[in-house]
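S.,

As promised, the adenosine-5'-diphosphate run. Input:
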Amino acid sequence: MDLNGFENTGTDPLLIRAIKEMGFEKPMPIQEKVIPVILEQERDVVGLAQTGTGKTAAFGLPLIQKTDKKSKNIQTVVLCPTRELCMQITNDIQNYSKYVKDFRVTAIYGGASIEGQLKELKKNPQIIIATPGRLLDFIERKKINLSKIDSIVLDEADEMLNMGFKEELNSILEKTPDSKNTYLFSATMPREVSEIASNYMNNAIEITVGGRNTGAENVSHLYYMVQARNKYPALKRIVDINPDIYGIVFCRTRADTKEIAEKLIEDGYNADSLHGDLSQAQRDYVMHKFRTKNLQILVATDVAARGLDVDDLTHIINYNFPDELLIYTHRSGRTGRAGKRGISIAIIHRKEMHKIKLTEKLIKKNFEYRLVPDGKAICEKQLFSLIDRMERVEVDESRIDPYLDVIYKKLNWLTKEQLIKQFVSLEFNRFLEYYRDAPDLNIVEGRENKREKGKKLNRSEVTRFFIKMGKKDKVSPAEIIGMINDMTGTKNISIGRIEIFGTFTFVEVDKAFTDIILSNIHRAEINRKQVYVEIAEPPDKNRKNPKTKERPFPKKKRSKNKNQN
Ligand code: ADP
Ligand code: MG
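Predicted complex:
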């Protein structure tokens, strides 16, 4: 038995079998510490660890194991801040429990049909993964009863509180029995999280892994590459795909700062500018608006932003990449503070790529290349954000009551479905209209603004990649294409011949995407497994390659010559 293995944590062999298949060899530190406590002790746990340290399995595995599979009752509730996370955790739990009989888990989250989720609930899940708003809704509709649960997990407690779920958390916790165990996980321990812990938890054991978050660790660096004239439209799309953005757009000059802010305001964004031409009173006014979050986007020069100290910025956008690299670190250091995650974005044109490379060396972190989102992605994002806001809005009964009668009468002719359509369109048409036929803004060498999906490629137009995964790994052409799509961030890419051998695969990809693929090698994954990818030798050379015993080209009948879709 492996001394460092999951076996030592007391984890059930059936669970171990499933997670080994997922590539979990040995427990991560938080798992090593938390799993035995949940399995063996009936007590509350506070787990503090940064993101990406394996917290889901730390509570997921032991809670699946402790579940009474014969029972049809909800025994565990996992609360998490967002729909994405909710689906992700559910998916993880499903994967871990692949070999466990009579175990059921369901996701309950906003922005999706209530009916579908009600149907899932009828299958009597023992664990539910939920976002607070929707869970409360179900509790109020008497579709979910938490009065008999054994455990509750508050995952990403700090994020839930950041997102304003404090009231919801309190009312949910009120509805759970005193006898339950509470497991709180968080990357940070701000005051509000401690409050929840002290109000609702007893004699909790605190398990901390690694230091508490430091600023720079939490910042992701992304870049987008567009032609200089497309910088402004790209900025708009980046803002549109991040409806909850609270950030600073940095420009080099006062003139740029003013111009960008004016354009944003004209285009309907909640933006303003901060630069040297403003009087002190004007500056104070703008800063105050921004600090109190009555302003979403601040366009600023480096000098003017100096006096501004705000902790919870979601994004820093480098509209002009700074000439001095130290300035970049100052800018990006304004986000990802106080244990929160932050994103620093650079919108560059092709000639600025070397600055990205130099900066990577300086900050000892890689930038991720991102494609400017297309209209469809933005419209989707906006739509769901709208629905989320609608679900979360506070209804002040006493104020709207006097009008409701008239409104009900006036809208009487609409069915519920029609009403929803009308209401959604009201807000949404602006985006649909703006992004109708919106061009691709990304610079992909020689392919600007063209959509070339499915086009046949000839040899001189492709780069051939070697992928260390083949028939033995049961990899399919669709999975190869999926991986390339994920790495490039687009499905709009022509893929040529895919040749799958025993232990490796060759795939031909539109040459224009070579750099993007190379800069995203770390994102090469199939079935959640990291995959080794490199540029293959051209076919002729490969024929002599002694490394590969197999024939470099398969026989005719086996050759796959597929274009995507
Ligand atoms: P957190 O919730 O702490 O942010 P996650 O639970 O999402 O982290 O895990 C981060 C990543 O690490 C996931 O991709 C997960 O599949 C992977 N992972 C978790 N535990 C292990 C393990 N023991 N061995 C290998 N990978 C793991
Ligand atoms: Mg997590």
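The first helix runs from residue 13 to 21. The radius of gyration is 26 Å.

- D.
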